[in-house]
What does this fold into?
Amino acid sequence: MVNRIIVALDVPTIEEANRLATDLAPVVGGFKVGMELLMGVGPLAIETIADHDKPVFVDAKLHDIPNTVERAAAQIQAAGARWVTVHAGGGVDMIEAANAAMGGTGVLVVTMLTSLTASDLPILGIDADLEDHVVDMARLATKASAEGVVCSPAEVRAVKMAEPGLEVFTPGVRPGTSKNDDQKRVATPEAARADGADYLVVGRPITGSSDPVVSAREIASSIAAFD
It folds into this structure.
């Protein structure tokens, strides 16, 4: 049975991230290293967390010209990343460049940040329904041979129906007792898995808990029926 929980280590120091990874490695499926750690200690964050023998999801959100993204993705892969995120807005050539650097697998396309809602789309110049836009970005990901996409729980079902070959990674997962924080398009772990999410990216409900291991186990238990 695949462990579907990716813990977002969105903490300020590598020491804190390493402590959390040490405690949580036996009960979760992998770890996310995001911008906070990358802007702090850089690739050392990837290397340190990869030493726990769990796949590392590097949420770099690369978005630049294809050559720059390819070189950055190569450095991220060399540091031990299993997955790296790129923004859909960079287009097919950019995504393909990242894919080449990662050896043909491991590129996850960010469709629409979970902090945004439909009311933000006109300001961004997007003249489409939010769900339709996310599905369009998923189709672009398939065209560029990406392994998967990152989308909110609200769009998981539509993405899976449109592009069933993509792995779907879902942030914005909040157990019923948790605050939404700055996430706006959220769902419970059970709802996200029921809709077809392959992996749940969970941060503060676990890392901000008084007992992260217990919280991770509770989430794992809540979604066990979907495997």
User: Anything to note?
Assistant: Residues 70 and 208 are 34 Å apart (CA to CA). The two ends are 7 Å apart (CA to CA). The mean pLDDT is 93.
